[in-house]
Every structure is written in structure tokens, then in C-alpha cells.
Amino acid sequence: MPRDIPVGNGRLLVCFDQNYAIRDLYFPHVGQENHVGGGYCRTGVWVDGKFSWIDENWRRELSYKTDTLVTEVSLYHKDFGLLLVCHDVVDFHEDLYIRQITIENMQSQKREVRLFFHHDFNIYGNSIGDTAAYDPQTQAVVHYKAARYFLAGGSAPGSNGLEGFAVGQKGMAGKEGTYRDAEDGLLSGNSVAQGSVDSVISLSVRVKGQDKGTVFYWIAAGRSWDEVRRLDGLVKTKGPEALMKRTADYWHLWVQKETPRLDLLPTGVGRMYRRSLLVLRTQLDRDGGITAANDSDVIQFNRDTYSYIWPRDGALVANALDLAGYLILSQRFYRFMADRLEPDGYFHHKYNPDGTVASSWHPWYLNGKAQLPIQEDETALVLWALWNHFVLYRDIEFIKPLYKPLIKTAADFMCRYRDLETGLPDASYDLWEERRGILSFTVGTVFGGLTAASLFCTLFGETERAEKYQQAAAQIRDAASAHLWQSDLNRFCRMVYRDEMGALKVDTGHDASLWGLYAFGMYSATDERIRATFSALRDRLWIQTPVGGMARYEDDDYYRVSRDVPGNPWFTCTLWLADYLVGSAQTQTDLDEAIDLMTWVTDHALPSGVLAEQVHPFSGAPLSVSPLTWSHATFVTLTQRVLRRMGQMKTCPECGASLLLRKDGEDWISKLYGKTCDAIHGMCQVE
Questions:
Q1: Do residues 99 and 86 make contact, with C-beta atoms less than 8 angstroms apart?
Q2: Which residue in 140, 303, 344, 562 is deepest, having the highest Cβ count within 10 Å?
Q3: CB 91 within 8 A of CB 157
């Protein structure tokens, strides 16, 4: 079941499923130490002697309040005659998760409604040696192990604390869990348990007929009992309403701090742009790591998660953040990666949020030979993104300490790591992590990375080194034209590779990642070879069902649901097609086709605006992890590119400067008439 409506602050991340159960809770790193780990922290309701956990028997609508990281959840049960409207936040500053529940009694008589909150913690990712205990000082239940503490409390009108509580054991000696204790509407009051444990707390409110009542529930996360007691005291002193309001205000200010001309795009596209920025923010760790996704259901597929920092994904996300104006967040990522670079100049496959090297299936030794288990595009893209960051912000004091240990070291590696016969980058694993060879995508990124390094060297006055890197980039481009372009097919191939005898072979598969050939500057989107390649990709990879969208490549078996289509549609791949259309656009009509694909994305998002990795080719339902950081970042980047292209098309007839105004300006045409060029420049956003 895909995750939805995540809320977080860079240290504490809370993720829900579509039944509004908390399924993942990460602390103190986003993506590391999942203390629920796919378990079920349920919410239950008792009224008129009847009980139900929130499940498919409730009509559930999960979304966010506009331009915030405050959820807006509607839960309706016809037989109970109840409507629950819930708002969830993680405080932007403190490690506090807070939920407000407004209960509407849709019947005429006054009724008592009891709410039950179940906690299925597996602290540090396992259930061995946990303790759960009632704390009389705070009138709350605390789960703890070693240096991780979670306090669950709440408040209701006319009550100083909980209505009831129970703790017990789960998953051992035939015990299902303490959540069963709630199903008669009463809790045992058992105050302590250790081992594999869970707990339930309850709140009670009496609601008049056709009236509403409100309760609050919270979880405080900390490293000691004293710390979670302090946080509990903060909620009670300031009031949960005040903490929720300050968090809503913070995120509204955060996402509105820049004012791109979203009004020039369809309403849904502008809304998705802002929602994507906010969802991205939940997946960023405070120490700089940018996680790919945080959805533990994927563990069932391969006994691992997406809760890692892939340098490639992180670099593309950082670039999106740079384009959107969030340089502090991208700077944290670049510093994080600079500290990870190996002395020889490459990055490993992926990293944990605490900076340690993460799990990998790429071998150091294969077919009797040693090899580097890397994806070289990950090294290249960090340099490419860093140069684009500098172009936007000119923060030379930030770049200076990264110049030698990161930029030059990585560029020297890319110069060395070459196939001697072709001059292309040497073999590494592809971005899909399935094939080893010389991938067209990787070649494009290495060209972009070396070009970025050359420009940095020019900036710092090292002209000979700059020429060395630029010459290597030029050689790689020439080699790509010689070996990756297949004139008999009239398109580029996916990759070349060497067989066991060392002979060069060609993989002619249609792969959406051929986008990388132009995306990082090696070729132009208007190059006839790129045009021919994308024409072929669209013919072979577009999903010919009412759902539509672009597959990754032909015969993609990852989460495959049918052999009648080449694979499942991916948001990122569909947006790459749109990006190509933007890059090759000559008229507004050309741009409109790209904008239509962006609208396709908004139409296939979850109602909350969350984007998964892929969707079902026949039903459109989300598949694989959700949200996928890469999906949202690609949408942000493309939005910026579309607006920039619009600005390039609308130019001053006298000087050629862009007439794309900021949102607080009037329409550019009405500004143009009767104005001198100088007057226009006082109002327009000059490129």
C-alpha cells in the first residue's frame, strides 16, 4: 500500500498508508532508524457500543492543506454517523508529531466517542528489548530502547490526560498485540511491558447531536526520558493548536518565498509545483542527505528499501532545489557528498543518511576480474549540479573549499576512467542498476561533469587543467558520435559493452534514459540525431492504454503487471519526454505539448499530490514506492524550464531581453505597448 501525506522536519519523518495508519516513523535521520518499519500504528473509534479501526469500511480522503505540510484527512463512517476531520503536522522546529481530530456527530442525540491510538514500535528497526511504560508524571505512555524514546500523549475537553491506556506484548506466545484490548472500548490499564511490545491510549469526548468536538494526540521523539517529557510539557504549555499554526505558517512562507510565473501554467501544474517542493522537503535529512524514498513496503520486494542517498538522485534533486531558490538545502547536499568522495575520485553506489556506505548488489569481483562497483554517472552529476548551482548563486566562498577535494579529484578520476579503444568512459553500472557497460546516459553525464570541472578550473585560473578536462569532454563527445550513434537504426543505442572475449558489442534497446545524451550539454535537443532518437522512443515506449505515460525501456520487468505493454509508465520518464519537447520547442504550440504531459502527471498523482515511482498501465494506481523524490524533483525542474523557455520566446524587440514578468507584474504584452526598452527592463525578468 503506497505511502501518502508524509510530514517531517528533517529529523522526524512520519509516513501514512491509504488507511491513515502510521506505517513508517524515522528518527533522528530521515530514512534511517525506522521505528515502525512497516508495522501498523492504527486509529480506532468506539461509539454506541460499536468499535472499528480506520480501514476500508471508512470513506477516506487524504490530502494536505494548501501550500503547507499540514495534512487534511476526512474519515466518514455511515453506520457510525461520524465524520472525523484530522490534521497532522511534525513541528518545523521540535521533534513533535501532533494530530488534531475534529469529530462531527451527525446524529441528533448526544454521544460519547472514544478514540484509540495504537503504537506498534520496533525501536531501532527491531522488536528485541523494547520497553513500554505508563508515565504518571506526564500521564502518557513511553516506548524506549537505549537512546530512543517515544512518548504518546493526548488531550480532550474536560480531561487532564488520557481516558485509558494499556501496554503489553505482541507477536510472541500467541499474543497478537495490545491493540486487541481496545476492541471492546475499554483498556486494561496494564502499565509496563518489555520485549516485543505495543501500546494503546484512548481519549474520550462527549459530542452533542449535530455538533463537533475536538481532541489532540501527539508523539514526542527524543534521546532520553527527560527530553520527551520536555516536549510533552511544551505541547501542554503552548497548546497543540499554537504549535500546529506556527508550523502551517512556516511551511506556507517557505513554499511561497519565490514567485515564479505559475499563473502562466494550468492551475493543476502550478499547484503540483508547490506540492512537489513541500514533499521534497520531507525527504531531506537535516545533515544533507537526500533520500530517494521512504516507503518500507518495498522491503517485501527485495528485502531492502529506497531510504538511501544515491548521488545521482540527490544531484538531480539538488539541481531542482537550486532552480527553485533553495540554495541552503542544496549546499547541505554538496557538502555531504564532498565528505563521501573516495580518495581515487568516485562515489559508491549509495549511502545511508548518516553518511556511511549503504548496501549494494554491485560486485567488486566478477568473472574472475576485479572491477569498480560504481555507477559513474553519480560522480559526474554531482559536479554538473554543483556548477549549475554556482551559475545561479555565485557563492564562491562556498565553492572554494570544495574545489580541490571534490571537483578536481572527481574530474581527474573521470579523465582516467576511460575505455582505451573507444575513448568513452569505462564500463560501469547503469542508472537502473541492472546492466554494466558504457551507457549513453552515463556518457552524457560524464561529458557534463568534465565540462563543469573545466569551467570551475577556468574560474580559479587553472587554464591548463581546464583545457585538459575540456579536451577529455570533447573526445568523449566525438567517441559517442562514433560508437553510440547507430546510423543503420537512425538513433542512438542504449549502450555498448564488451563480451567475455573483449569484443565491443551494441545494446540497441529503446531506453528513456537516452534523455541524458542532451540533458547535460553533450548534444542539443534540436540535433537531428536526438530528434530521431526521441521519435523512436516515443513510438516504442509510450503506453498504448487509456492511462498512457512512458515506460523506462522495452520489456521492463520491475513491478511488471502485463506483457501487453513495454513496462509500467514512470513519472520521471514521461517528464523526460516533456523536457525534450521543451528543449526542442520553437513555438508556444510546441511548449503546449510538453505542458500537456505535465498535466498527465498531475492527473495521475494521488489526490494529495504525492507522486509514486510508477503507475499501473491499466488502472493508473500507484506502483512501487511513494513518494519518489526523483519524480517530484523532475516536475520542479521541468516547470522551471518551461517558464524559462516561455521567457526566451517572449523577448524585447529592441534588445532581446526576456519579457516574462514575475507574478506581481501585469501581462507582458500590456506592459510592452507605449514603453521604451529601458522602461521595460525596469519591470521584466532579464535572463
A1: yes
A2: 140
A3: no
